[in-house]
Amino acid sequence: MSTLVLRIDNMHCGSCIRRVTQTLNALPGTHAQEVRVGSARIQTNTAPEQIQQALTAAGYPAFVESAAA
Q: What pTM, to 2 d.p., does this model score?
């Protein structure tokens, strides 16, 4: 399982954080460790591209800041 740090655009409030957390945790093999306005740290077995697609579809474009195995 790898750890990703994401920069996430369009997050402005607690409601955004809940929606991003729910979107991340709905992906198979993904667990949101820490979600804050503008960023998230997750553990995942899912390809980063799939995570980015899911968040973009939810209205929160995401960019991988760092990845560690």
A: 0.93
CB 44 within 8 A of CB 30: yes
Q: The CATH number of 2-68 is which of 3.10.180.10, 3.40.50.10300, 3.40.50.2000, 3.30.70.100?
A: 3.30.70.100
Residue 35: Cβ within 10 Å count: 23
Tens-level pLDDT at each residue, the chain (69 residues): 899 999 999 999 999 999 999 999 999 999 999 999 999 999 999 999 999 999 999 999 999 999 998
Q: Give 9's DSSP letter.
A: T
- Alpha helix ranges (H) inside 1-69: 14-26, 48-57
